[in-house]
């Protein structure tokens, strides 16, 4: 009974603290029509300190979404356009000689911001990609032997176009694994498209004003960490991830020849963290199996390696995750 009372009290506390989510959602909807999944994914990344890889054709408001979010939060925003001639120094910064001081000083690159948009990340060579991904993992940058901490919160949203593959440098699996979520964005619905047309030809630009500070986001993250995660939910997460590694143990023998390698422990951690953030967004103080199912594709789709057999059979990681979710027993 004591535990039930605790959960009720926790639920009320989370409901109170998560009220700002509604304001953020409303603010995002002023500038972005539809794309609810994209908006929720951005908030999950923001609340659980994870980075997001977005895949979608041009013109689906990927850039606009992160720009709007950084405008709603009183935070620094920077955009890096990845091109084949980009250098690591263009991302993290370099040492420049100051004639005034008579010495070299560090000129910080665009990565020193709260929200960093890495536009078309796969257009730059591996050297540049790794410069950004080091910053993502360690939350710090080393310029000429001196280490500088990145601001908090620090969120990287990288985009890539799934259509054009010429002149691109695909992200290696180990680097893709650093992204908490890989979100695939689709076209808007017909009614949403009409609303987009109306909004953009009216000429009335929506003024987005800050409604939160970065300090409030940091405080919110501490509350998200209090969301209750039951042992049965932990087991459910572990089962889903283990089913990507040993499908035959979960009566999924047909997947054995299709999976080259399964998800890493980072997937389990990110499933738990993202589920907590998702429950928080839904103003709930505890994680339910539906939360795991809602975020499983985004957390796992880029962490499963496919065999040649899978590619020859036109099977993608999306279908594999769906089969696993439908098969693994729900607590």
State the secondary-structure class: alpha/beta
Strand content: 15-25%
Helical stretch tally: 14
Q: What is the percent of helical residues?
A: 40-55%
CATH topology of the largest domain: Rossmann fold
Largest sheet: 5 strands, parallel
Overview of this protein structure:
- The protein is an alpha/beta fold.
- The chain folds into 2 domains: 13-218, 3-Layer(aba) Sandwich (Rossmann fold); 227-327, Magnesium chelatase subunit I, C-Terminal domain (Helicase, Ruva Protein, domain 3).
- It is built from 14 helices and 13 strands.
- The strands form 5 sheets. Strands 3-6-9-1-10 form a 5-stranded parallel beta sheet. Strands 2-11 form a two-stranded parallel sheet. It has a two-stranded antiparallel sheet with strand order 4-5.
- A hairpin with a 4-residue loop joins strand 4 and strand 5 (103-108).
Pick out its properties.
331 residues, alpha/beta, Rossmann fold, Helicase, Ruva Protein, domain 3, 2 domains, two-stranded parallel sheet, 47% helix, globular
């Amino acid at each position: 009974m004591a535990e039930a009372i605790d959960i009720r009290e926790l639920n009320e506390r989370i409901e109170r603290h998560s009220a700002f989510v509604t304001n953020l959602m409303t603010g995002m909807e002023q500038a972005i029509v539809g794309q609810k999944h994209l908006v929720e994914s951005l908030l999950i990344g923001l609340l659980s300190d994870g980075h997001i890889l977005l895949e979608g054709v041009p013109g689906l408001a990927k850039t606009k979404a992160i720009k709007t979010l950084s405008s709603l939060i009183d935070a620094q925003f920077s955009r890096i356009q990845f091109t084949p001639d980009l250098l690591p120094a263009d991302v993290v910064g370099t040492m420049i000689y100051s004639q005034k001081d008579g010495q070299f000083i560090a000129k910080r690159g665009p990565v020193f911001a709260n929200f960093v948009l890495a536009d078309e990340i796969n257009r730059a060579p591996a050297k540049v990609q790794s410069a950004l991904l080091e910053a993502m993992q360690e939350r710090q940058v080393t310029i000429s032997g001196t280490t500088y901490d990145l601001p908090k919160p620090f969120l990287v949203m990288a985009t890539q176009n799934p259509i054009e593959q010429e002149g691109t440098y695909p992200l290696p699996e180990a680097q893709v694994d650093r992204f908490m979520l890989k979100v695939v964005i689709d076209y808007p619905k017909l009614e949403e498209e009409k609303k987009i047309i109306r909004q953009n030809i009216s000429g009335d630009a929506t003024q987005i004003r800050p409604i939160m500070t970065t300090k409030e986001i940091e405080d919110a993250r501490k509350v998200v960490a209090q969301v209750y995660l039951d042992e049965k939910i932990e087991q459910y997460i572990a089962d889903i991830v283990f089913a990507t590694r040993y499908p035959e143990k979960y009566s999924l023998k047909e997947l054995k020849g299709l999976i080259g390698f399964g998800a890493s422990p980072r997937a389990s951690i990110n499933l738990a963290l993202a589920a907590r953030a998702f429950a928080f967004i839904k103003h709930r103080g505890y994680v339910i199996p539906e939360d795991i199912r809602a975020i499983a594709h985004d957390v796992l789709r880029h962490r499963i390696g496919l065999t040649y057999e899978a590619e020859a059979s036109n099977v993608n990681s999306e279908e594999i995750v769906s089969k696993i979710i439908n098969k693994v027993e729900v607590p």
